[in-house]
Amino acid sequence: MRMNGSHQLRRKQFYKNLSVGEALILFAGSASRKTADACYPFFTNRNFYYLTGIIQVNSIFMAFNRDGKVEETLFIHPKDTMAERWNGYRISHEEATANSGVEQIMDLEQFDEALSEILKSGSVSALWYDFDKYDEGRKDALQNRHSESISSNHPSLTLKNAYPVICEARTIKDAGEIAEIRNALSVTRDGIHAMMKAVKPGMYEYQLEGVFNKVLADAGVREPAFANIVSGGRNNFYIHYEEPMGILNDGEMILTDVGARKNQYVSDISRPFPVNGKFTPEQKEVYSIALKVNKELMELLVPGKISFPEIEANSRRRVGELLVDAGYLGKDEDVSKYYWHKGTHHIGLDVHDVGPPGQPIAPGMVFTIDVGIYMEDKNIGFRIEDNVVITETGYEHLSADIVREIDDVEAMMRG
Ligand code: GLY
Ligand code: MN
């Protein structure tokens, strides 16, 4: 589903910041070189996509507030039969307008001239760029390179940062975005349930990962939201495990931390389960603690009343208390031995989506609740991770239909 109305609306919101004489320049980005003449697949810059809805390599968007009226132009590669024969389809000007709502589409080669024209007119006082925090100090990042070269020729221009403004907007999801996350979650649910049904002791981790990928493909999803994590036994202690070459052994736990991406929007779910379909009493006990804390954290989700750091603090404290009660720890303060990571992050166009971490939660935020316990000395380690959306009065548990009660998991695994 294309949401050009939404992209247009988002631009309009942004323009509240764009004073007369100011221009915004956004880059879709290019494909990074992998080796020789091969590149990694192109992945559209998230803020560029958020404001334009355009997915095409090297595209540039410019908006200029000339005199109170914002002029928008999208610069894209021109149609070219020979280039397309090798590198694939290029969208036409009409398609670019339909997808973005931008009326003026120009060929990419015209960008420099169009920018020079407004700069020469002397009516530009400031340029806004998307200075992504992850690109800070990177000379090769497009926005850094471009802004530096423009500034050196036009030293009186002010540079302004669009990144925090766009990121703040992205933190609150609209109905269309939440619908896409729901779609992604329903594919993820089917993929996780299929893995629960398919697993057998002696399988390789990548074979089980293949079961997940097949469900995604059958649902029209070519690419997961992030590198699948499918690990067994001691491999569960590598939090971001991306080389699933191990064997799934009888008596051990599997950890699946996976998510489909649907129309750019992600899901992010962790479900652990026993390789042989039946939890041992000890696995059951540790799993029950993680699940109990996960549920307790959700009950704290009241808009305006709690922030991510407070959710994290509760998670850590409760895991510590319950591990002490169960006799796994001597005192709560030792919880770091088994509690390794935070578990609350926004999801959206990115899996670790943008959003100021310290502010109170608010309606329209979509994020993870993730409780992990890692006991290397007992070879039991996993996390239970769910996705929620904050409503006007509380929350909705978006991944409630992905089984997680012990009896339900065992029943699913029996098929
Ligand atoms: N699910 C992977 C992560 O949040 O890091
Ligand atoms: Mn996560």
What gyration radius follows from the Cα positions, in whole Å? 24 Å
Low-confidence stretches: none
Report, as a whole number of angstroms, the end-to-end distance. Answer: 34 Å
CATH architecture of the largest domain: Alpha-Beta Complex
What's the structural domain tally?
A: 2
Strand order in space, largest sheet: 6-5-4-1-7-8
Task: Please give the count of helices.
Answer: 12
Indicate the percent of residues in helices: 25-40%
Quaternary state of this entry equals single chain
Description:
This protein has 415 residues and is of the alpha+beta class. The protein has 2 domains: 4-170, 3-Layer(aba) Sandwich (Creatine Amidinohydrolase, Chain A, domain 1), CATH 3.40.350; 172-414, Creatine Amidinohydrolase (Alpha-Beta Complex), CATH 3.90.230. Helices cover 36% and strands 19% of the residues. The chain has 12 helices and 16 strands. It has helices at residues 4-14, 46-52, 81-87, 93-100, 111-120, 142-153, 163-171, 175-198, 205-218, 281-299, 308-325, 406-414; strands at 22-27, 33-35, 38-39, 60-65, 70-76, 104-107, 126-129, 158-161, 229-232, 253-258, 261-262, 265-266, 269-274, 366-375, 380-390, 395-397. The strands form 5 sheets. Strands 6-5-4-1-7-8 form a 6-stranded mixed beta sheet, sandwiched between helices. A 3-stranded antiparallel beta sheet has the order 9-10-13, with helices on one face. A hairpin with a 4-residue loop joins strand 15 and strand 16 (395-397). Helix 8 (175-198) crosses helix 9 (205-218), helix 8 (175-198) crosses helix 12 (406-414) and helix 10 (281-299) packs antiparallel against helix 11 (308-325). The mean pLDDT is 96. Residues 226, 257, 268, 351 line the site of glycine (GLY).
